[in-house]
Amino acid sequence: LALIRRFTNLNHRDKRPVTLICEQSLLMCVERRKVLVKGIPIDLSYMEFEILKLLLENQGNAMSYDQIYRHVWGEEYVGGDKNTLRTHIDRIRKKLHIFPELPDYIKTISNYGYSFDPHFD
Question: Bridge partners of 115?
Fold first, then answer.
C-alpha cells in the first residue's frame, strides 16, 4: 500500500485512471509505463516492459516461449530466438533484483517458458 500511495502522490496532477499491478515490493503502472521496486524507479526498455507486463498479468501461470513471442513481438517463436528472449529476461531479473532480500520474481519453466511467481521456489 505504501508503494501505491507513494506512486499516487508523485503523480497527483494527472487525474486520468491508471492500471496498477502490485506484487510484494513491485509496482507497475501500465499506462505510464513505470515500474517501481520498493519505491525506486526501474528503467526498462520497451520490450522488457512488455514482457514483464505479460508475466505480471498472468501471475503464477507458465507462459510458453511462443505465447511470449506472439504477445510481445507479434510473431511466432522460432527455436533459435530463445537466446533473444533469455537475454531480455536476464536483463529484467537484474534490474528488478536491486535488493538482495527480494525474491526472484521470474521463474524459468524448463523447456517451456517463464512465469512471474515470487512465492514459488
Answer: 107
